[in-house]
Amino acid sequence: MSTDRKNHLLTRLLHDDRAILPTRGTVNPPVHHVSTILFDTLSELEQSASTNLPIGHTSYGIHGSTIQQALAQAITTLENGHDTIVTASGLMAATLALSAVLKSGDHLLMTDSVYGPTRRFCDHYLKNQNIEVTYYDPRIGEQISTLFLDSTKAIFLESPGSYTFELQDVPAIASVARSAGIITLIDNSWATPLYFRPLDHGIDISIHAATKYLSGHSDVMLGSITANSENYDRIHDHAMVFGNHAAPDDCYLVLRGLRTLPQRLNAHQIAGYKIAHWLDSREEVDFVIHPGRADHPDHALWKRDFSGASSLFGFVLKPVEKVKLANMLDNMSLFGMGFSWGGYESLLIPGYLSKIRTAKPWQSSGKIMRIHVGLEHLDDLIADLESGFERMK
Ligand SMILES: *Cc1c(COP(=O)(O)O)cnc(C)c1O
Q1: What letters, b where the CB count within 10 A reaches 16 and e where it falls short, cover 44-53?
Q2: How many A from CA of 38 to the centre of ligand 1?
Q3: How many CB atoms lie within 10 A of CB 67?
Q4: CB atoms within 10 A of CB 145
Q5: CA of 184 relative to ligand 1 center, distance in Å
Q6: What is the pLDDT of residues 1-52, one digit of tens each?
Q7: Ligand 1 atom nearest residue 209's Cα
């Protein structure tokens, strides 16, 4: 991505979607709360059944309010896609997209490092639908073609993976999939479209937990599915069939969060590197797992494909008794314990992977930890971690 393009995108993020809405002079687009839409004439009512309505001209609330369409437009711009469906949660984005491309008898290749609840959907719902799921080693690269069956319909990627942060050779997988007529989907929540644009690397469908960095303030649940032109219609139709909807106030919050995403993410990135470096120097830490660091096993892929690193990463502690770990975590003053990330606040939790992975079981002698570095002052964060390590002794 050239510098020009980035600057251009930065501006488009602030202006593109606003230009298509009637703001009546206000900087921000209006939030319409809507179920019923009234038509002035019988002719307009009958035309509303048309599927190619311009933005803001829908026939019923389920099609999404104007603010939902504005958010979809903004994410489409960032992802360089054809169009975007906004969903009620990040998990809903993954499950809707998967169920849109798969049918009974199909085979799905799923990365072993996928977000846990997406895995649960595969193991329960998809298997009940007679859809076969094979988990693969996230580092498989183009060798994934050895797992192709005649019935293989889709490959789902997540890079870096949840908790363990393996990077996938996305262009290599996308390329062999494309030659075999297999659809590729990726969970791109970690990088956001600012640091990685999967469709530019041959992926068909990119999914986000907008709940995380895109919203950035830990107060809203939302997801998105951006597809290329070959796949958008089937996902749109599927979302309509299932009655997908995203609440207008939530769409507004994510759109508001998006305006400052480049600046927030950059601050997260800088602080993330600094905390990773500091952790690496601690005797309590066995090793750090940060894709943007040269000591990450897949760093070369990150360097080739990504233009930045967010501030969610892992580290492995040297073996320590659980009571001591609890003594650290129970008494942190800034790092919270919670199953999320991407907000302005810092988080720290252990990972529980022993029962999850099947293709590539996770092995480490000490506990794997997941840290999200927020926007607090760095010195305060380090002091909090330092006294945490003291309590662990
Ligand atoms: C949190 C998360 C999701 C799900 O998003 P929700 O909005 O919480 O449903 C999906 N993928 C990844 C990688 C996540 O971390």
Answers
A1: eeeeeeeeee
A2: 36
A3: 28
A4: 17
A5: 18
A6: 444 555 688 888 888 887 777 777 888 888 989 899 888 999 888 888 765 5
A7: 5
pLDDT in tens, 254-302: 999 999 999 999 999 999 999 999 999 999 999 999 999 999 999 999 9
Q: Which tokens is 170 given?
A: 């996305």
Centre of ligand 1 to C-alpha 147, Å, is 27
Q: From CA 337, how far away is CA 328, in angstroms rounded?
A: 11
- Which pair of tokens denotes residue 201? 């690397």
In the reported structure, the alpha carbon of residue 91 is separated from the centroid of ligand 1 by a whole-number distance in angstroms of 6
Distance 54 CA to ligand 1 centre (A): 31
Question: Which residues, in sequence order, are bridge partners of residue 348?
Answer: 371
Domains along the sequence of the chain with CATH: 9-259 (3.40.640.10), 262-392 (3.90.1150.10)
Which residues are paired to 287 by β-bridges?
A: 316
At 197 the three-state DSSP class reads coil
pTM tops 0.90 = yes
- Residue 57 pLDDT greater than 90, yes or no: no
pLDDT in tens, 116-132: 999 999 999 999 999 99
Give the residue, by CA position, lying nearest to ligand 1 atom 8: 90
Are the CB atoms for 256 and 102 separated by under 8 Å?
no
In a 3-state reduction of DSSP, which class is residue 75?
A: helix
Structure-token match 């219609």, residue found: 233
Answer whether 98's CB lies under 8 Å from 126's CB.
Answer: yes
Nearest CA to ligand 1 atom 6: 90
| Residues having CB within 6 Å of any atom of ligand 1 | 89-91, 115, 158, 162, 187, 189, 209, 211-212, 221, 223
Closest ligand 1 atom, residue 221 Cα = 7
| Ligand 1 atom 13 nearest Cα | 115
Distance 160 CA to ligand 1 centre (A): 13
